[in-house]
Amino acid sequence: AYGISAQIDYHDGMLIAVLKNSDGTILTPPVMQAYFTRPTHDGMDFSSTLTDAKAQLHFPAAGLWHVRVLA
After folding, report:
1. Quick count: other Cβ atoms within 10 Å of Cβ 9?
2. 11-49 in b/e burial notation, b at 16+ Cβ within 10 A?
3. What is the per-residue pLDDT across 10-56, written as a single tens digit (0 to 9) for each?
4. CA triplet 16, 21, 24: central angle to 5 degrees?
5. Can you tell me the distance from the alpha carbon of 52 to that of 49, in angstroms, rounded to the nearest whole number?
6. Model confidence band, residue 1 (pLDDT cutoffs 50, 70, 90)
7. Which of 5, 10, 28, 39 is 20 to 30 A from 19 in CA distance terms?
8. Which residues on adjacent β-strands are paired with residue 10?
């Protein structure tokens, strides 16, 4: 509805979020929050703060995770 798109990448322990508005301009919120849930197991959910759209992560277990990023 707001015309904002997001690209979330994870590589070598680093989560990077890139937000763009409808004309392609990169948005740079100073802080974002990422929430991680494990669809197959309860009790492992965690969150992490992204500063300058980046966060170093250490997952408590290998496998499939869902992420929701709020800016």
Report:
1. 9
2. eeeebebebeeeeeeeeeeeebebebebeeeeeeeeebe
3. 999 999 999 999 999 999 898 999 999 998 888 999 999 999 999 99
4. 85
5. 10
6. low
7. 39
8. 15
